[in-house]
Amino acid sequence: MAYRVQGVVVREKNASATIETIIVPNPGPGEVVVDVLTCGVCHTDYHYQQGGISDEFPFLLGHESTARVAEVGEGVTEVAVGDRVILNWRAVCGQCRACEKGQPQYCFATHNAKQKMTLEDGTELSAALGIGSFAEKTLVAAGQCTKIDEDSDAAAVGLLGCGIMAGIGAAINTGEVKRGESVAVIGCGGVGTAAIAGAQLAGATTIIAVDIDDAKLEQAKRFGATHTVNSKNEDPVEAIRSLTDTFGADVVIDAVGRPATYKQAFYARDLAGRVVLVGVPTPDMKLELPLLDVFGRGGSLKSSWYGDCLPSRDFQMLIDQYKLGRLDLEGFVTERIGLGDVEVAFAKMAGGNILRSVVVL
Q1: Which SUPFAM superfamilies does this one have (predicted)?
Q2: Which residues, 6+ apart, have CB-to-CB distance to 325 below 8 Å?
């Protein structure tokens, strides 16, 4: 028998997020129903509400979650009933050209549950990032469940399901930060601050936080920033160069995703340095750079999608670093809220004065 549960739905573009009764079907082959334990309030959910992801309304929001497996479908071997998991939106196929090359983090055919969850009247819901976990239960593909240990704060480790993993991975996986290197991070929201934490975890010795908000810059120090630059008051390129013996940083991470900040990142790196774009641009944005500068500066220009993570490899490893006191995941949890507080959390997030609100069910 299908499950009737409460979930947070947005019915049309820019409509308020409301709690609705949703129908979660029993899992089919390769599918899993989970009891959601926590779900972080991510900018991506806000973008769904604004119509910035797609127009396939109504959406069941939420995706950054810790959960417990409640029921498994036919053929599921990855997890079992009772397992504690983090949900992810990169369920790799194992068969595409990226997977066959041994690069499953770039899988071109990630998959979601085939069945649809619905409203009571039968209207099909589009699950945010194929997850939809602002709900008491949700239906996902088995590969979207990554088993983790029991003895960690669910609200903290669940953030690895999206934004915090994106930032940490941008530094460690995409930027390949090495011990003793210099790193600059432009934009100190949740993802940028996570990139700073990732740079510290990787052993960078100079970590420069760049933002226009002094409060965010002060917060960045807590996660490992050794220097801060308010780009509203000074040229960030010149400031980064002055802090790196005039050479520029080994790795510069753009966690904003705008042409202006990308150019700053490009010119603030060392000649053989790496630029990593992890901030998400909008479809209308264009970038102009002198091609000779691209050629003449060497190094690499990379984009980082989900921090180039492989959940089966990265989630538990980062939880272990958290438990050893090397990664302050709990520090990203600004507040713990209920399902009915998501709309208010969106407003706080838009104001830029919060790292993560986390729904606790």
Answers
A1: GroES-like, NAD(P)-binding Rossmann-fold domains
A2: none
